[in-house]
Amino acid sequence: AQSVAQPEDQVNVAEGNPLTVKCTYSVSGNPYLFWYVQYPNRGLQFLLKYITGDNLVKGSYGFEAEFNKSQTSFHLKKPSALVSDSALYFCAVSRRTGFQKLVFGTGTRLLVSP
Amino acid sequence: DARVTQTPRHKVTEMGQEVTMRCQPILGHNTVFWYRQTMMQGLELLAYFRNRAPLDDSGMPKDRFSAEMPDATLATLKIQPSEPRDSAVYFCASGFGTSDTGELFFGEGSRLTVL
Predict the structure, then answer these.
(1) Which of A111, B19, B35, B77 has a Cα-to-Cα distance from B89 of 20 to 30 A?
(2) pLDDT of B97
(3) Least CB-CB distance to A103: which of B45, B108, B109?
């Protein structure tokens, strides 16, 4: 069965500084990897995905993520954080073979201070 | 703007009552997922459908929960009888594709409180 670990419950960063939200995964075979963001009292919104190809994936709102197969990681990054980036971020994984279901991590709360 | 619509947005009920949550997936999407979100458990997958057929409901308590797709425009999640531990936000999400490599679109959620 596939699983995702987000080791940090919360990440604090000052506006303008780079941010990283960590994610490691476990899945048999090659994975599909995703990042979603959730704002208060809202559903999750898709940010980006890794399917195949370039290990650096670019997504919405200036976010990017780097797939590292040897470390089974898919960390979310942004060069310069905005206060409006403050939200709950979820990493998710699914298998490539068979019928995939998306399994989410526990989420990391990002707080960007002015 | 195409979106997943969930009703009700909020529901307060008493233990033992039946609760039905509804979801209208985005037109043309062929996969539908039900997730439950709580502070303690995070996001749990309850059930998912492809082309209206249930493919996996292993995450769902079978004795009280049931999920159906009576047609392509409606998915339902029913709890009977409801218990206080069912209090959570229930999300429906839809997607499209034969390999689920695409993104999921989430509804705003149904916040359930069972007293």
Answers:
(1) A111
(2) 62
(3) B45
Strands, sheet with B74-79, edge to edge from the N-terminal-most edge strand:
B5-7, B19-24, B74-79, B65-71
Of B43, B101, B105, the CB nearest to A104: B43
- The 10s digit of each residue's pLDDT in A16-59 is 999 999 999 998 888 889 999 999 888 999 999 998 888 999 99
Which of the following CATH numbers is that of domain B5-85+94-105: 3.90.1580.10, 3.30.1240.10, 1.10.530.10, 2.60.40.10? 2.60.40.10
Quick check: A41 contacting B, CB < 8 Å?
yes
Residue in chain A closest to B3 (alpha carbons) equals: A43
Peptide bond connecting B8 to the previous residue in cis, omega within 30 degrees of 0: yes
